[in-house]
C-alpha cells in the first residue's frame, strides 16, 4: 500500500485539466467556424431578399441631401452607431441607404444621420428597376412611350399589364440576340476562321495546285459571309427594337428620367409586396444569380460562368491528380526498395505540400503554357501563329497546375491507405497463386479505396478554393464563352474561364464600387462554400459505399 502511494506523481498536472483545456480549444475553434459560416450565410442570403423603399424628408441643413432635394429615397441597408464628440446632444445613429440612380447621383449609397430625418413614408407607387447598366433605379413611374401610340400615363387603366407585357417582349428579344450572336454567328465565325487559316497556309506554301484550293476556299467563304451579314442585320434590327419604347419615371430628387425598355431586366413595387410575394421574388433573385451572366463589372447579374468554370476545373484536376498520385504512392510503398532514395523522395513530397501556391502558378505558366502549349502550337496550330491557341492560359493548364499542387496530398493519403491493408490479405492472395500486380489490382487497391478517396477529397477542397496560381494560368475577370458549347469540337479546354474564388477577389478588391459589391461578395462566397461541400459530400458518399463494399478489420 505504501509502495502504491509513493508511486503516485508528486508534481505536474494530471490528465484531467489537460482534457478540459483541449476541449476548450476545440470549442473555441468550432464557435469561430460556426460564427464565420453564420456571418457568410446571413449576409449571403439577405442579399437576395427584396427590401422596402423608404422616402425620407431631410432637414434643410442635412449633408445627405442629393442635388439639394429635400427627399431622399432608398433601401435601408445598414443601421450603425457613429463616432461623434461626447458633448453632442444628437443621437449617434446613422442609416446607410441604397439610393440607386447612379447615372443621376454619381453614387449608389448614402449615409443619413437619424436626427436629420424630419419624416419618413413608404409610398406604394415606389418602383425598383433592375437595369443592364448603372445598377438599379428607384423612382415612381409616370408614363409609357410606345412607338406609334399615344403616351400611356401611369394612372391609366391597363398600364401595369402593358408594362409587364413589353418587358417580357424585350427579355425575349434579348435572349434571341444572345442566341444569334453566341450560337449562330459564333459557329459561322469559327468556320470562317478555319478557312482563313487554310488560305494563309496556301499563301505561305505557294504550291502549284494552290490556285484551285484557293478558289475552293473563296467559294466556301462567300455563303458564310452572306449568312453572317444576314444574321448581323437581324441582330441589329432586334437591338433597334429594344430602344423603341420607353419608360418615363421620376426619381426622388424630382428629375424625370427616360429609360428605354430594352435596358430593363426586371422591376417590382417593393412597398406593395406581401410576405409570400417577397419569398417568390427572393427565389427568383437566387435563380437569376445562379443562371445569369455577370454585368456591370461583375457587381450585377449572376455567376453561372464562374460556377461552370469552377466545377469543370475541379473535375479535370481530380481526373489528372488521382492516377498520378495513386501510381506514385503504389510504387513508393509496394515496389520501390526502401532506402535512402525512397526516404528522400518522401521528404521531398512532404515539403512539396508546403510550397506556396503562387510558385506552382509560376511553374505552370513556364512549363505548361510556354513550353508544352507553345510546342503544341508549333506542331499542330502553326497556321494560327503568332496568335497562340494552347500557348496561353486556359482551362487545361489551370487544371494540370492545380493537379501538380495537390498531388502530394493524394500520395500521402494513398500511402497511408495502402499501409493499413492487413498483411494477411496480401499473403492469402499470393498463396492462392495470384501475382503481385493481381494482388494489388484486386485486393489491395479496392480495400484502400476509401483512404484514397479521402486524399482526393482533401485535394478537391484545396484545389477548388485556390486563386493565386489560376491568375497566371487561365482565369479571367469575364469569359465571353464557356469551355463547352455547340461549336465543334464542343469541348474547348484551351479557352480561358471564370472561377468563383477569383470572382470573389475581383469583387472585393478590384471593383469600382466596393459598397455595391459587398452583397455579391457574400453571396459568391456562400456559393463557393456550398459547391465545395457538394463536391466533398459526393466524394464522401462514394467513399462510404466503397468502405462498406470492401469492409475489413482495419476500415
Low-confidence region ranges: none
The main pleated sheet reads as: 6 strands, antiparallel
Q: Which structural class should the secondary elements be placed in? A: alpha+beta
What's the CATH topology name of the largest domain? Answer: MetI-like fold
Assembly of the depicted chains: single chain
**Can you name the CATH architecture of the largest domain?**
Orthogonal Bundle
What report would you give on this structure?
The strands form 3 sheets. Strands 6, 7, 8, 9, 10 and 11 form a 6-stranded antiparallel sheet that branches. A 5-stranded antiparallel sheet has the order 4-3-2-1-5, with no helix packed on it. It has a two-stranded antiparallel ribbon with strand order 12-13. The protein is flat, with a radius of gyration of 32 Å. The chain contains 15 helices and 13 strands. Helix 9 crosses helix 10 and helix 11 (423-431) runs antiparallel to helix 12. The mean pLDDT is 83. The protein has helices spanning 2-6, 15-46, 102-105, 159-205, 210-242, 275-291, 304-335, 340-352, 357-380, 395-420, 423-431, 436-465, 470-473, 500-509, 514-549; strands at 53-58, 71-81, 93-98, 109-113, 117-121, 127-131, 137-145, 152-153, 246-250, 256-260, 264-268, 294-295, 300-301. It folds into 3 domains: 53-141, no CATH class; 152-244; 312-549, Orthogonal Bundle (MetI-like fold). The longest helix is centred in the N-terminal third of the chain and has 47 residues, at 159-205. It is an alpha+beta fold and 555 residues long. Helix content is 58%, strand content 12%.
Amino acid at each position: 500500500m505504501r509502495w502504491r502511494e509513493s508511486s503516485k506523481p508528486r508534481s505536474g498536472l494530471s490528465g484531467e485539466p489537460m482534457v478540459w483545456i483541449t476541449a476548450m480549444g476545440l470549442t473555441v475553434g468550432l464557435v469561430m467556424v460556426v460564427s464565420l459560416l453564420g456571418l457568410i450565410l446571413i449576409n449571403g442570403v439577405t442579399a437576395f431578399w427584396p427590401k422596402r423603399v423608404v422616402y425620407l424628408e431631410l432637414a434643410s441643413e442635412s449633408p445627405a441631401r442629393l442635388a439639394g432635394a429635400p427627399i431622399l429615397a432608398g433601401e435601408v441597408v445598414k443601421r450603425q452607431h457613429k463616432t461623434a464628440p461626447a458633448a453632442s446632444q444628437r443621437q449617434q445613429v446613422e442609416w446607410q441607404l441604397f439610393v440607386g440612380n447612379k447615372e443621376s447621383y454619381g453614387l449608389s449609397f448614402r449615409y443619413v444621420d437619424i436626427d436629420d430625418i424630419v419624416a419618413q413614408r413608404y409610398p406604394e407607387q415606389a418602383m425598383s428597376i433592375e437595369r443592364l447598366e448603372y445598377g438599379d433605379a428607384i423612382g415612381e413611374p409616370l408614363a409609357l412611350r410606345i412607338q406609334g401610340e399615344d403616351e400611356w400615363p401611369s394612372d391609366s387603366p391597363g398600364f401595369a399589364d402593358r408594362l409587364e407585357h413589353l418587358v417580357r417582349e424585350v427579355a425575349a428579344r434579348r435572349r434571341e440576340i444572345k442566341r444569334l450572336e453566341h450560337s449562330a454567328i459564333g459557329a459561322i465565325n469559327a468556320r470562317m476562321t478555319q478557312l482563313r487559316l487554310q488560305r494563309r497556309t496556301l499563301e505561305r506554301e505557294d504550291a502549284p495546285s494552290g490556285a484551285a484550293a484557293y478558289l475552293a476556299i473563296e467559294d466556301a467563304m462567300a455563303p458564310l459571309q452572306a449568312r453572317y451579314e444576314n444574321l448581323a442585320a437581324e441582330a441589329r434590327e432586334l437591338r433597334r427594337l429594344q430602344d423603341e419604347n420607353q419608360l418615363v419615371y421620376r426619381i426622388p430628387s424630382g428629375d424625370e428620367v427616360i429609360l428605354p425598355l430594352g435596358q430593363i431586366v426586371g422591376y417590382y413595387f417593393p412597398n406593395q409586396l406581401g410576405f409570400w410575394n417577397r419569398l417568390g421574388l427572393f427565389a427568383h433573385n437566387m435563380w437569376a444569380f445562379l443562371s445569369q451572366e455577370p454585368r456591370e463589372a461583375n457587381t450585377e447579374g449572376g455567376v453561372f460562368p464562374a460556377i461552370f468554370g469552377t466545377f469543370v476545373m475541379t473535375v479535370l484536376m481530380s481526373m489528372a491528380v488521382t492516377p498520378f498520385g495513386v501510381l506514385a504512392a503504389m510504387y513508393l510503398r509496394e515496389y520501390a526498395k526502401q532506402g535512402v532514395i525512397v526516404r528522400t523522395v518522401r521528404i521531398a513530397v512532404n515539403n512539396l505540400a508546403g510550397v506556396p501556391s503562387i510558385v506552382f502558378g509560376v511553374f505552370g505558366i513556364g512549363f505548361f503554357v510556354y513550353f508544352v502549349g507553345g510546342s503544341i502550337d508549333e506542331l499542330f496550330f502553326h497556321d494560327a501563329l503568332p496568335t497562340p491557341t494552347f500557348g496561353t492560359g486556359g482551362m487545361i493548364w489551370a487544371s494540370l497546375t492545380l493537379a501538380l499542387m495537390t498531388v502530394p496530398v493524394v500520395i500521402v493519403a494513398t500511402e497511408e491507405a495502402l499501409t493499413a491493408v492487413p498483411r494477411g490479405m496480401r499473403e492469402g492472395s499470393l498463396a492462392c497463386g495470384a501475382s503481385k500486380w493481381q494482388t494489388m489490382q484486386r485486393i489491395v487497391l479496392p480495400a484502400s479505396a476509401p483512404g484514397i478517396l479521402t486524399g482526393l477529397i482533401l485535394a478537391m477542397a484545396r484545389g477548388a478554393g485556390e486563386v493565386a496560381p489560376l491568375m497566371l494560368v487561365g482565369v479571367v475577370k469575364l469569359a465571353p464563352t464557356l469551355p463547352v458549347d455547340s461549336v465543334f469540337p464542343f469541348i474547348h479546354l484551351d479557352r480561358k474561364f471564370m472561377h468563383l474564388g477569383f470572382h470573389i477577389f475581383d469583387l472585393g478588391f478590384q471593383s469600382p464600387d466596393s459598397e455595391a459589391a459587398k452583397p455579391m461578395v457574400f453571396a459568391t462566397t456562400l456559393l463557393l462554400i456550398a459547391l465545395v461541400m457538394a463536391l466533398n459530400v459526393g466524394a464522401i458518399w462514394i467513399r462510404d459505399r466503397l468502405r462498406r463494399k470492401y469492409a475489413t478489420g482495419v476500415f
